[in-house]
Amino acid sequence: MNDNAFHKKGYEISTDKQKLDFDLIFNYLDKQSYWAKGMPQEKLRIALDNSMCFGVYKNNAQVGLARVITDKATFAYLCDVFILEGHRGTGLSKWLMQTILAHSELQGLRRWSLATADAHGLYSQFGFSIVSNPENWMQIHSPYKKD
């Protein structure tokens, strides 16, 4: 992993939820993401509280995030992955993925899952592939609606 190279540039990845910048995360998800527009603040607070959160920081200011929803034994769902625009193109997303997949509490899982509209190239580098037998998967999808 590239820990030392990124640390020398002032970056770190932390799972300490106390460091999360809720306003930055909410603003990004609500205004810039295509997948979470309209998420109510109270729903985001619950989501963060009940997930493993990997915050990406530059000189202690948050510049990215990934959430992992997991039972830590058999399954993990990766979501809400983002790096702020001014920090993209530096390899941070790859470092974030390496860090998540190497985390001690996420070893030996039978299945990882995620949904993406535009980052297949990134995730395929880490072993993710198109769902085989998609006819076996079902969902209930209820997009957020702003009043």
Automatic annotation (TrEMBL):
InterPro entries the record matches: Acetyltransferase_Butenolide (IPR053144), Acyl_CoA_acyltransferase (IPR016181), GNAT_dom (IPR000182)
Record-level Gene Ontology MF annotations: acyltransferase activity, transferring groups other than amino-acyl groups
Keyword match Transferase: yes
Domain of life of the native organism: Bacteria
SUPFAM superfamilies: Acyl-CoA N-acyltransferases (Nat)
Pfam families: Acetyltransf_1
UniProt KW Nucleotide-binding keyword: no
Keywords recorded for this protein, A-Z: Transferase
Domain N-acetyltransferase: 11-147
Descriptive protein name: N-acetyltransferase
